[in-house]
Fold this sequence. Notes:
Blueprint: E1 4-13, E2 18-28, E3 33-37, H1 44-51, E4 59-64, E5 67-68, H2 74-81, E6 82-85, H3 97-107, H4 115-125, H5 130-133, H6 142-154, E7 160-164, H7 172-189, E8 192-196, H8 200-203, E9 208-211
Amino acid sequence: MSLLEIQNLYYSYDGGKTPVLKDVNFTFEKGMTYAIVGKSGAGKTTLLSLLSGLDTPTDGKILFDGMDISKMDREKYRSRNIGVVFQNFNLLPHLTAMENVILSIDVSGSKAKDKKKQALDVLEKVELTEEKANRRILKLSGGEQQRVAIARVLSYNPDIILADEPTGNLDHETEMQVMRILTDLAKNENKCIIIVTHSQGISKMVDVVYDLQVIKK
């Protein structure tokens, strides 16, 4: 059984007048990296919203571990089973890297006894030192901020990490560093990594590429 499965998925706006996704069928496994590509308007970001449980399909199903996510506690699903990394990082700039991660630990409802140690452990996984963990977000480079965003997601140990153009604001060298971290998480931590991207470089580094087509109106 696939960890995450899309079955005959349809999505449209305006009461069905504006179709965005049509009969999409994808499967996702642990320990694998995936890229979702397609031209502008193909529904990549919409699909990410559906996979993260922020929106509901017009028709079809999204199954997590065999269960339709529309019938799950989606707040619990989003805070424990799935994590989202955004292009613009979505970090709180007045906090340190470690404080951002601890906040995520708190939101997940974790009962960890030593949240500081847990935060430092996940920051170490994304190659950030304790010295940088104690820096405010605006004192970190773009690549370092994206690594904090990944660490924040890792703090509650979800099975799936969704990344929406995670390297869109980064230079090529930093893009490769972030991608190496994500691919290592799939291989070494058995995570399912799903990346929405326009980058040809990223597409060449993943295990599977899914291409969404723009629906002709």
